């Protein structure tokens, strides 16, 4: 996917743990996944449209059929496509966290891209975020850094991001292995359930660390290189398993949305397939609330005040710095 003539990586952890996205998933897998998801997002493959046959996709991207099949499984796990034997793979949904939707398009549902665009249109950027991982935010922040460097938007005078994440050491009610569906080839028996659960948690910790590091570097580098006068990213962990995601522009607006819990098949790096409880965040519905300075009793104003107070209380009393 590209925007402004520059490549943008759109990464996802489903708010979930897909084995197709593990550290050993490979650059080719990521490249094909991002391209196909981008085409779904920008309408190249419209709702109801069939994707090209696997053989054509393999030839176009110069990858194996196995890689294409893994990508299609990931898109299916994101509920963006459905596959039927003999009927091909059809688009059934578009990502709500689209990077490519223009800000001035009429929106049926709020999305993250316009929210982040509005935040970075200010001279003083202040964002408070509570989420399972920072994957969606990381992609959008990197997009804004590219726009600033390309002088498409004026550089803010100050950027301040506070990121509140669940403690990686805690045990989640989701991200949980339920049982083995298919053992890996060559294994006499499947790994025990507790080991499968450890691998699920290891992947979660790795993905969380990778995206927080990427997000922090994207903004701090702007200050280090003198592109913006001040950029600060503070990350803390809280012993709370998120049931919703929350994005706050202090005293301005908020986006929030629930994580949908689902049972899904996860294919681990060695080929073992397990049934697991996961959460889906990429396609979750986001709700927007706007602070009404003329009416402190409006729904938006009350929501903003209460959720900001909730965030600040967790930040001060429960969270620990990373």
From TrEMBL:
Show where the HTH gntR-type domain sits: 26-94
Matching InterPro entries: Bact_HTH_transcr_reg, Tscrpt_reg_HTH_GntR, WH-like_DNA-bd_sf, WH_DNA-bd_sf
Q: Would you tell me the protein name for this molecule? A: GntR family transcriptional regulator
Give UniProt keywords alphabetically. Answer: DNA-binding, Transcription, Transcription regulation
Q: Name one GO molecular function term.
A: DNA binding
An example of a Gene Ontology BP annotation on this entry?
negative regulation of DNA-templated transcription
What the entry lists under SMART domains is as follows: HTH_GNTR
